[in-house]
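S.,

Sequence below, as promised.
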Amino acid sequence: MTEPVSYTHDGGGISSVPFRVVASWPAPAFVENVAVGPDGSVFVTVYSGNRIDRYDPGTNEVNVFATLPAPPMGLAFDEAGSLWVTGGTMRSAPGYIWKIDVGGAVQRWTDLPEATFMNGCAVHPNGRELLVCESVSGSVLSIDLREPGKWSTWLRDESIAPPPSETLIPGANGIKVRGGVAFITVSARYAIVRVPIRADGSAGSVEAVWGDVLGDDFAFGESGSLYVTTHPAQSLVRIDASGKRTTIAGPDQGMAGSTACAFGKAPGDKKALYVSTDGGFVVPHRGVVQDAKLVRLELGEGGYPLLGQR
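The prediction came back faster than expected:
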């Protein structure tokens, strides 16, 4: 897509935090998502390379962890340490779900014949489902984590679909679960919404939380702050528990095409946030596509745990 002339995005004031580029991929490269494993290793989806790479914070080495038959998008770990991956060629059916074990062995888990834009994912609090954003249809899909090939629509709502006038920016994009509530970025509507998870595991009603925010992916800090990657807005924004917004990193801190973020888990990493970027692969910064990056930012707080929540 081309860079919009203007945004309704409100990033608040600017107050940068310490940062360090820990890995990079030569342009043009599209690094789309990031997740941190139980041992603190950082995994990224290299959409442009049909693979998942692993960064070791202890050695600073990057290695190929798994190669896939189609481009990967979203990532999420379950409590057993298996890595779940969404993917498929954007704007083309079908979509896919893969399960990858700790050794990097890939299992093709579920095909989604009509899905054209698989995106972010999160493990349901019950531990038996993977909630997956399908960015075109205004849907969150439920993937059964016990039976390959079994899935259903967990949520379908017009408010998380792109408006008819917007054909390029995704609707439902990133998803995280906190305190029994699913939070979803709806990029094309410049909004973040919440969906309460009912006692039976089904979706409640969609509720607006924050507007005027061009969110791609996000992570919750332990303080209740939300850290949002803004992709075409080339920044990382913190929304604190009171709703105050601050842009804490921009292009000068490596945020050109900021796609996703996750808190570290390794020793010395627990108050660091890792941000993946595409270097402006989709929307170049000042007309130039940079190397894709994995950037480590020091935040002074840890992340909210993503598993075992109710």
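DSSP finds no helices and 25 strands in the chain.

Coffee later?
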